[in-house]
Fold this sequence. Notes:
Residues 308-513 form the Sigma-54 factor interaction domain. There is one protein chain. The chain is α/β, with parallel strands linked by helices. The protein folds into 6 domains: 2-75 and 171-188, Response regulator (Rossmann fold); 79-166, PrpR receptor domain-like (Rossmann fold, 3-Layer(aba) Sandwich), CATH 3.40.50; 203-280, PAS domain (Beta-Lactamase); 299-453, Rossmann fold (3-Layer(aba) Sandwich); 457-541, Helicase, Ruva Protein, domain 3 (Orthogonal Bundle), CATH 1.10.8.60; 544-588, Homeodomain-like (Arc Repressor Mutant, subunit A, Orthogonal Bundle), CATH 1.10.10.60. 50% of the residues lie in helices and 19% in strands. The protein is built from 25 helices and 21 strands. Strand 5, helix 5 and strand 6 (119-123) form a beta-alpha-beta unit. Helix 4 (79-90) packs across helix 5 (102-114) and helix 23 packs across helix 24. The protein starts with a strand and ends with a helix. The structure holds adenosine-5'-triphosphate. Adenosine-5'-triphosphate binds next to helix 13 and helix 21.
Amino acid sequence: xIKVLVIVPYEGLLEMMKEVSQExxxxxxxxxxxNLSEGVAIAKNAENEGYHVIVxxxxxxxxxxxxxxxxxxxxxxxxxxxxxxxxxxKGFSGKAAIVGFSNITQGAATISELLDLDIxxxxxTRDSEVxxxxxxLSKDGYEVVIGDVVTVQTAKQLGMTGVLITSGKEAxxxxxxxxxxxxxxxxxxxxxxxxxxxxxxxxxxxxGVFNQDNEVIYGNEQFYHEFHWLKLDNTDVKKLIQxxxxxxxxxxxxxxxxxxxxxxxxCPIQDATILFFKNxxxxxxxxxxxxxxxxxxxxxxxxxxxxxxxxxxVIHHVMDQIEHFGELDGPVWxxxxxxxxxxxxxxxxYLKRQTADKPLITLHCDVITAEQWKDLMKESFFQKYxxxxxxxxxxxxxxxxxxxxxxxxxxxxxxxxxxxxxxxxDNMEKIIKNGTFHxxxxxxxxxxxxxxxxxxxxxxxxxxxVHVFISDLHPKYGNEVVxxxxxxxxxxxxxxxxxxxxxxxxxxxxxxxxxxxxxxxxTEVDTVFKRVEQQAxxxxxxxxxxxxxxxxxxxxxxxxxxxxxxxxxxxxxxxxLGINRSTLWRKLK
Length: 589
Ligand SMILES: Nc1ncnc2c1ncn2[C@@H]1O[C@H](COP(=O)(O)OP(=O)(O)OP(=O)(O)O)[C@@H](O)[C@H]1O
């Protein structure tokens, strides 16, 4: 039995509905009187009380449609209804007009033309236009106005004769037929949704969908159990959603949320992003210490398989070494300048070595604080995760006493040791000599050593990398750029690339965005190089700055650095910083 509430805007329809309700058996029909906002309030109540469908008419039906999420059927004004009224007003004396929405006026205009009636038709798009139209008509000597409830009420207020277009039985029967159709469709859809929801709720992963305003538009049971977000306030997750939208492709990242590590897979869909949250390995133990956060430790059970590209002999040698060391389980030390593919090499070795459930735990040695290190050691973190592969990233930045403690751990034969993969800069000899790095630690971990020479020493790789990066960018930005002019390529080959392949990749992406045609031009390379060097200069300023001080101290350091770069010329420094000279002087005091 379909439970239907009919909200009628005028008394006459109430009676007719009551009559019709006696004749239908498959519909439990309730009828109530209510016009516009009054009708909306009744409809909202009805939805809560479990009615399946609402039937109403004209403006009231449109307003209800906005307010409820069950189907709303509009009793249409039929040709018969208009005909009936027009025949009726034929007997009236005085000028007559029909005022209403297009569903009424369109049919009426045709019918009055057919019947050769002198009746004006005026179409409105909003109820609020009625009064203005009627005032105009009144001025022009019209006395009779035909229309919907609002039109008739307004006409009466203005002292005109208002004639209501009532709905005949045919329109009501049509509406009930439409009710049956919508109900069938709606309940089938609801069943499908309920079925899908059961499947999603039985999933172990938490699944959440966020719209562009970071609001949760869907969450499965597990999601609401773990997170209490209605609107997202976690900046790391927000950033991840942003990255997904920008790249328009799946991303995988491990993040620490509410003291647990989650491997999050994101998937962009139209106007929203789906997030799958998987509990990362043994979260309780990893997050026991509240100082261990996601910037210092990253845990991956999934690493993207990115091929290492290059035509040079040295890159082929690196590939051979990966093959070889990938077969063993001892430590491998990868050295090279920034952006030169060390992480890529480490990931390739991991993928080669990976047994089903060994996670890769990356420790960012450059950002670990004394407190965090103490926690790792106290909990003998490395031993607890001896079953994993550890990646000590930028080990050359590890503080000397931490190096010493790591060495002691490695030398203690009672310790169960995990596998180690290490990356460092190019200057190990120098820092060992000047005492910043522990020689023994290097000797112990670098027995298998892969060195990646800087890109400027293997320029023959550049052309190939450029072409692959261009083709990789196609799916992201569309198919405009298909190649690069020879003189532009020469310029890229001649450049020294202090940031190596990572910088080349970035520059190609910038060229992609800059380029106006199918081929990247030399002038575009000039523009992008200029921009990149400007950015490097700014970053350079920041890299000299110790961010641990107060805001004032940091600001002072930035000013001094810029002053130095500008040969202590205060005017130029002030201009670059966007402040005037006296402010600069005041800030330095
Ligand atoms: N030979 C290569 N083939 C393809 N892509 C490369 C190659 N070398 C580096 N890349 C890409 O360049 C970027 C930087 O590489 P990666 O992060 O591995 O460098 P890194 O040496 O670990 O840098 P850093 O020390 O600055 O963290 C990455 O996007 C990586 O995929």
